[in-house]
Specification:
single chain; mainly alpha; 4 helices; 0% strand; flat; transmembrane helix; transmembrane; UPF0060; EmrE-like
Length: 116
């Protein structure tokens, strides 16, 4: 159970760092908010790399593939909360599918090992 909680917390922290970092760079470049936003974005993106490396699964490809689903849902959530984005039903459906895929990728191998 602790491993599951750790995985979820790390994915949430990684999402905040990556999406927040990309948003800061977007603000710098697209919204002319200044280079400080870009520098902070680069630092946040670097932090994302470190957070992702703390996932208990040792397979880089699996962790990043699963994170892709978290990134999809997290990006939409960021847009809703920070930018006032109004998602469609299909945004929600796509996000749910991406999260389901992420859960299968990250948790199914552990479940399979536990049943062996």
């Amino acid at each position: 159970m602790m491993t599951t909680a750790r995985i979820i917390v790390l994915f949430v922290l990684a999402a905040i760092a990556e999406i927040g970092g990309a948003w800061l760079i977007w603000q710098s470049v697209r919204e002319n908010r200044g280079w400080l936003f870009a520098v902070l974005g680069v630092i946040a993106l670097g932090g994302y790399g470190f957070v992702a490396a703390f996932q208990p699964d040792a397979h880089f490809g699996r962790v990043l593939a699963a994170y892709g689903g978290v990134f999809v849902a997290g990006s939409l959530a960021w847009g809703i909360v920070i930018d006032g984005f109004k998602p469609t039903l299909w945004d929600y459906v796509g996000s749910a599918v991406a999260l389901l895929g992420a859960a299968i990728i990250i948790f199914a191998p552990a479940l399979q090992r536990a049943s062996e």
